[in-house]
Amino acid sequence: METLEQIKTRLEVAVPGAQLQILANTSPCQQTSLLVDSGHLVEVATFLRDDAQLQLDFCSSVAGVDYLDQVFPKAVKTRVVVNGVETELEDAVAETKPGFLEVVYHLYSMALKQGPVILRQRTVNRTDQVLLRSLTPLWRGCELQEREVFDLYGVIFDGHPDLRRVFMWDNFKDHPMRKDYVGADDFEYEPTPHDDVFEMAKRHYPRRG
User: Fold this and answer.
1) Total count of domains within the chain
2) Residue 62 forms part of a structural domain
C-alpha cells in the first residue's frame, strides 16, 4: 500500500484546493493520519474510496475527540516615562487558543486487504461553529457512529440522513463525552445508590431536621 505521504501527493492533484496535513502519532501504534478541511472532505473521501490503487471501501470506526481551549502565558512589554526616565515594564497576560471538536475515520480496503488510512476533520470551535460533513452517503457504516458523535460530543453532520440522539433522550441539553461536562448528582433513577454515587446523592439530598 502507498504511504500516507504518497496518498497526500496524489490527493493534492486530484482535489485542488484541499487543505491536507499529515499528523504524527506518538503512541505505540504510530499510525499517522490525514487532517482534511471539512469543505473538501467528501471529495477527498470519494477519491480514497474509488481510486483503483486504494479502494477504501469500508469505514471501520468513527470516533469523536474533544480539545479544550488552551491558555498560554504571554509577556507584553511597554515603555513608560517616569520622572523623565524611560522604563520598560513587562506584564503577563493570558492568550487563549480556542478548542475544537474532531472526528476520526478509519478506512480499509476489503477488496485489496489493506489499510487503515485515517482521516480527521475539525470544527472551528466547541460552541457555535460545530458543523462538519457527513461521510454516511459514502460509507453506510458511518451512520450510527456519526450519530453517536453527534449525541456525545455535539458535532452536527451536514448531509447525515437521520441525525438524532442514540444514548441520551431528545430533550437532553448537553454532551456527556465532552471534557468539561458536569454530570448530574441527583441520581433519582438509582434505586440503591452506593459508594461514590451514594455520597453524591447525600450531598444532593441533605438530611432534614
Assistant:
1) 1
2) yes
CA distance 70 to 73: 10
**d(C-alpha 34, C-alpha 31), whole Å:** 10
Collapse the DSSP code of 3 into the 3-class scheme (helix H, G, I; strand E, B; otherwise coil) and give the result.
Answer: coil
Averaged pLDDT for residues 61-74: 92
Report helix, strand and coil shares of the chain as percent, to nearest 5: 20, 35, 45
Assign residue 111 the CATH number of its domain.
3.30.460.80
Of the two residues 195 and 139, the one the predictor is more confident about is 139
Across-strand partners of 86?
81
Grid cell digits, residue 48: 480514497
pTM above 0.85, yes or no: no
Per residue in 113-137, pLDDT (tens digit) is 999 999 999 999 999 999 999 999 9
Percent of the chain with pLDDT over 70: 91
* Domain span holding position 156: 4-66+101-162
Residues paired with residue 36 on neighbouring β-strands, in sequence order: 20
CA distances from 113 to 55, 120, 200 (A): 9, 22, 50
Q: What is the CA radius of gyration of the chain?
A: 24
